[in-house]
Write a structure and sequence with these properties.
Blueprint: E1 4-7, H1 9-12, H2 15-26, E2 33-35, H3 38-51, H4 56-69, H5 93-102, E3 106-108, H6 117-121, E4 126-128, H7 130-140, H8 142-155, H9 163-170, H10 175-182
Parallel strand pairs: 1-2, 1-3, 3-4
Helix pairs in contact: 2-8, 3-4, 7-8, 7-10
Length: about 180
């Protein structure tokens, strides 16, 4: 079975990591499928806008571009499921509802405490931090992950970067992953 991953807002917040995920979505070599929702887009983009209000127009443009390019990765019709879940943070119920609706077996989130393993297991889902997910992907989809890193570094032009430059950018959010890549 190929893995299906629901990306929570904090998995998409980091621009370098978000771009790696989007590159993975586009690769035929990657059998893992990634999903998210409009609400998740609103969460990460609004958090960025609060932090960088001067970049509001650029952030909104990026969200619109992602939606236009990756519309098939947006989970629709999950809202009726939201109220059936009892999570420590009720504001996270939409994430589990979208994962269940799409048949995802992994939720990528750094809010692990808000997604109890016992409850998730009832739905065949588990939560992984961003770093755990990237290590998991590297172990199971090494060729695709390396292609995604290379593609991102190759097309990033302002300024031009190498894969090592990208790993330096990723060190903060996924340090175990970057260590794993450097050691391979």
């Amino acid at each position: 079975m190929d893995d299906k991953i629901l990306l929570d807002a904090n998995a998409l917040y980091s621009q370098p990591l978000r771009m790696v995920f989007l590159n993975l979505v586009q690769l035929d070599e990657c059998t893992t499928q990634f999903f998210w929702t409009d609400k998740i887009d609103a969460e990460w983009s609004n958090a960025l806008i609060r932090r960088y209000p001067e970049s509001k127009d650029v952030i909104i443009k990026q969200v619109n571009s992602i939606k236009a390019s990756f519309f098939d990765r947006y989970v629709l019709g999950y809202e009726p499921l939201i109220n059936q879940f009892d999570l420590p943070d009720p504001d996270d119920r939409h994430v589990l509802a979208a994962a269940v609706k799409t048949g995802c077996n992994i939720i990528a989130t750094d809010n692990i405490k808000d997604f109890p393993a016992k409850l998730l297991a009832e739905y065949g889902v588990r939560a992984m931090t961003r770093d755990e997910l990237m290590c998991f992907l590297f172990t199971n989809e090494k060729k695709g992950v390396m292609l995604a890193l290379d593609n991102f570094a190759r097309v990033y032009k302002d300024p031009e970067i190498t894969v090592e430059d990208l790993l330096i950018k990723l060190d903060r959010s996924v340090p175990s992953f970057t260590h794993l890549v450097r050691g391979s």
